[in-house]
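U., I forgot to send this yesterday:
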Amino acid sequence: MKKASLIEYLAYWLVRFFSLVVIALPPKANFILGRALGVSGYYLLKKKRNLALKNLKTVFRDEFEYWQIERLAKKAFISLALNIIEALYIPKIDSRYINKHIRIENLKFLDEALKKGKGAILLAYHLGNWELSNITCSLEGYEYKVIVNEQRYPLLNELLNRYRQSKGCKIIPRGMALREIIKALKSNQVVAMAGDQGGKEGYLSEMFGLPISTPSGFVRFAANTHSAVIPAIIVRERRFYHRIILEAPLELEGKDETETLENCLRKSNAILERYIREYPQEYFWFYKIWKYSPFRKVIVLSDGKAGHLRQMEALQKIADGLGFRVYSKIVEIRFRNRLAKILANVCAGFGLDIFELCISEESYLALRRASADVVISCGASLAGLNLAIARDNLARSVCVMNPGIAGRRRFDLVIMPKHDGSRHQKNTVITDGALNLIDQDYLSQQTQGLLKVITPDRALKNSIGVLIGGDTKKYKLTQRLITVVSSQIKKAASDLGMDILLTTSRRTSDKAEEIIKKEFGGLKECPLLVIAREKNIPQAVGGILGLCECVVVSGESISMVSEAAASGKYVLVFRLKGTYLGKEGRHERFLRNLESEGYIRITQPENIADKIKELIRDKPPIKKLDDRAKVKEAMRKLL
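Result:
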C-alpha cells in the first residue's frame, strides 16, 4: 500500500468529520446538501465538467440540443454528490433502511441461479449508486463478494472498504482476484464484477455505435465455472429512494470462445446503453470513456481558405491510416467583423479567450455541440480559438503552419513548413512543403474520375499538365505573362506531339481566363480545359497530376506547388510578377528550398518550352516531395 501524504491525512479526517455530519442530519437536509454540493461541483470543477460535457456530447450529439446536454451534466453532478452523501451514510444503513428505500425487481433470477449451486456473477455498472447496491445484497442475506481496485488514496480506500465490510460485503482485491473468485463461485456465493470501464486490458466492443473498452473477465469466469451472469442495475427514483433491477442471465452462446465473448459483451453493453438512455443523469460521466479505444473525434476549424482546408484534410488522412477510427467534423469559423478577429487573436496571445464574443452565433453553437479528442487548425487566425476549444474538450491541439502570436509552445503539435523560418522544438515537425492529399492511391482515384468526365474522342497522348493560379495580395498574373506562358506551352506540345491538360483556379482573373480560353479553347492538342469559376471539376488537379508526364505550375500558390512536387512528375514553376522579387520572403524561400532539394525546377516564362523539351528528352531522375513519414510518426504519438 502506498504511504499516505499529509494532504491525504487531512482529507481523510475531513471525510470522517463530514460523514458524522451526514449521519447526524435528517434525510431531507442531506438531500438539500447533496444538491448544493452537486451544483457547486458543476460550476467549480471545470475540468470534470468539461469531461462530462464531452462524453455527453459524444453520446447524445444527434439527440439533444447543447443546453439540454448542459442540464444533463448538471444533473449528473447532483447525482454523484447524492451518491457520495449516501456512501458516507453507510454506517447507519441497516435492513430496515434497505426495505424502506430500495425496491428490488426480479430477485428470482439470482435465487434460481444459486439453486443450481454454481454461484452467480452480478454484473455491476457505474450507473446509479453502485456502492449502495453492494451492501444491499449482503444485507439481504446473500454471501456476497465484490472485486475492488486499490484507489489512489490508501487511507480513503481503507475507509470505504471498512464501510463495505461493516455491512457484510466481503472484499476481493484485484491483485488476488483469480483464485478468490473461483473459490467463491464454487462455494455458490455471489460475486460482483464490473461490466464497464474495461481500461487498458479491456476487450473492444460496441456501445452507442462506437468502439469501447469493456471488461471481459466475467465471461471467462462464467464459462469456466458455469455460473450465471446477471446484469444488475440500480437507479435513483427520487431523493434517497432507489430501484435495483436484475436482468435475465446472459446466455453464453457462440461457435467458439471469441464469438461467445463478443456476443456476451454486446448483450451487456446493449443493456447498459438502454438504461443510460433512460437515466442519463445516473451514469458516471467523469472519466475518459473512450481513452482505450481506437475511436478518435477530430474538430477541424476552417477559416474558409481552400488551401488551408486541403492541408488539414491531408492531416486527417494521415490519422486515418494509423489504425484509428477517426470521426471528423469541419466547423467553418466566421468572425463578426475584421476588428473582432484582430481583437480575439491579440487576446489569445495573452491567454484570454473572448472568442464567444467575436465569432458568429452559428459558428459558436457548432463548436459548443461538437466533441473532440483532437482540434486542428491552419495558420495564425484560428490558432487561439484552437487552444480554447482544445482546453474545453480536454483535447490535443494541432496547428498546421505558424500559429503566430498564439505561440508554438502551447500546442501539442505544430506542423510548420521550412520556409516559415522554423526552429526545431520538441512539439514541432518541420516540413519541406505544404501538407497535401497527394499519394499514388489518390492520384489513381482522381485520374479514373477525370477520365470519366472528359471522355476524349481519341486516346490521350503523353501530356503536359498546367495548373494556373491567379492574383494574391503580393502577386499578379498579368495579361502579358499568361500570354507568354500559353505560347510556350503550345509550342512545347506541338514540338513534342503531346497533349495539354489545363485547369485554372478560382483566383484566376477574368482577363487571364479570357486569354486562356482564346489560346486553348478548341485546340486539338488540349482535350481538357477547366475554367474553375465557370465549371469546376473536383478531380481536375489530381487527375491532371496523375495523367501528365510534366506539369507547369504558377508559383504564387504554396499548396499547388507542393501538390505538384508530391506527384512524382517533372515540375516546372514560373514566377508571377510580385513584391517578392529580389527579396527573401516566404514564397521565395519556399521555392528556393524545393529547388535546392531537387523537387522542382524554377524557370522564366520565356524558357518554359525549352525546359519541357529538355526534361522529356533527357529524363533526369525525379525526386518526389513526401513529408508524410515524419508527420505520421508525430500523429501516432499524439493519438
